[in-house]
Design a protein that fits this description.
The protein is of the alpha/beta class and 145 residues long. The protein contains six helices and five strands. The chain has one domain: Ribose 5-phosphate Isomerase B, Chain: A (3-Layer(aba) Sandwich), CATH 3.40.1400.10. It has a five-stranded parallel β-sheet with strand order 2-1-3-5-4, sandwiched between helices. The protein is globular.
């Protein structure tokens, strides 16, 4: 399952994500704002998605705010989360292959639907390469406080 959320600044990006997921018949749940005028603070929104992603290893999350950095920083505060701010297809692809990212963060300001679709295509088509050394490293990261 894919869990998505955006604040009012990430609304346009999340709408593009919804269009993408709907067009491909992918199950998702929007846990963020539903209109561009709705306001939801990041500290309320991010944990909603994180909780769901951590329930099952197959779950993924997509977050958006104005810069994308706020949701990336907030998401990465949670043990077991590897969030990446992807601004292009290459970063999206390698965040999955090399870093096994389970949260994709998107820029909400000045977003273009066609670019978001390319990023999503790359992210969803890539899989972790299975490197055991990096898995060990990720487990160490999870113990940092």
């Amino acid at each position: 399952m894919i869990y998505i959320a955006g604040d009012k600044h990430g609304f346009a990006a999340i709408k593009a994500v919804e269009d993408y997921l709907k067009s491909r018949g992918v199950d998702y749940l929007n846990l963020g704002v539903k209109t561009k005028d709705e306001d939801l603070p990041l500290e309320a929104m991010i944990p909603r998605v994180i909780k769901k992603v951590l329930e099952n290893d197959d779950n993924l999350g997509i977050l958006s705010c104005g810069t994308g950095v706020g949701v990336e920083v907030g998401a990465n505060k949670f043990s077991g989360i590897r969030a990446c701010l992807a601004t292009d297809e290459k970063i999206a692809k390698w965040s999955r292959i090399y870093d096994n990212c389970n949260i994709l963060c998107l820029v909400g300001w000045d977003c273009k639907k066609e670019n978001i679709f390319k990023i999503l295509d790359s992210w969803f088509s890539a899989e972790y390469d299975g490197d055991k050394k990096r898995l060990k490293m990720f487990k160490k990261f999870n113990n940092w406080h």
